[in-house]
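Subject: two folds for Thursday's group meeting

Dear M.,

Sorry for the delay on this. The cluster queue was jammed most of the week, so I only got both jobs back this morning. I'm pasting them in the order they finished. Each block is the input sequence followed by the predicted structure tokens. Could you check whether the formatting survives your parser before we put anything on slides? The first protein is the one we discussed after the seminar.
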Amino acid sequence: MKQDYKYWKKRITQNGWALEDVPQELRTPDLCKIAVAQYGYALKYVPQDLRTKDLCTIAVAQYGWALQWVPKDLKLEVVLKVSLEKPLIKNFEIEPWFLKEISKKENRNLIYLYLGTKDPEIKEIFDKILIKG
């Protein structure tokens, strides 16, 4: 028996992880949004062309480690958007490799200013990772 969209929507509403089992042709923006809102890890199973800034923000806000599946060109925007609502380093356990990666291409002064002024611990982390490298 082939499952239809309604079946998958109900299943994903109960368990976002189920997106992994959804046939590719049924992975719509709506279904993917439901999945990542329920369980951010489901971003791993969202087709690349559907990984928008808004969808990725929802996923990372729900599950910080979902950041690893955010397209490179959206990572900085997603981190900053999510950090407006939740403390970045403490809630999301961002690894030093990510901070180094975004500091290569992005305006690290913006990141430093934004995060450094909110929490002295974060400023110290940025001092160690970005400034001293």
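Second protein, same layout:
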Amino acid sequence: MTCQLKTIISLFIILVFSSALASEEQPKNSVSVRGKKLKTIIVGEYYPYTFVNKEGLPDGFSVDLAKAVSQVMDHDLEITVDTWDNAQNDLKTGRIDFLPMMAYSRERDRDFDFSAPHTIAYDAFFIRKGIRPINSISELAQARSKGRMDDEMMPAEYPETCCNCGMTKRYIT
């Protein structure tokens, strides 16, 4: 079974067994598809997966995927934009039905059910030639970085040294 098919089946199951399908007026920055209403939240600047487009509406790969599955299931879809902390809290308390983009961790698995992933991402650290390589998480914390790192996952998921946590050194020239 392909990864895409597993993802569609997983999203189908999430949508079918959603518990909060109440109808209420949609906020201004919502996208609507027909039928029963499912609710979700996106973070506004997590390109290309979730973002707010020039028209002020939720957009991105994960939004398109959620809209497509909702449409096939004949459900309305209410997507609002909020902070990551509020999104997780609203999922935990049942105010929304699903999150279209959340990386798996053992800590999160205690509170949430996960579908098969629709995206597998690999993180990398790039340093200039001639700079001493980063060999541990503590060295990484001291390094000046550009970009985004999922800080909430780093301490719980990775042992002290990169060699023990599965990070591999690969030099690209």
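Two things I noticed about the second structure. Residues 122-173 form one domain. The helical segments are 3-16, 61-72, 84-93, 106-109, 137-142, 154-157.

Cheers,
T.
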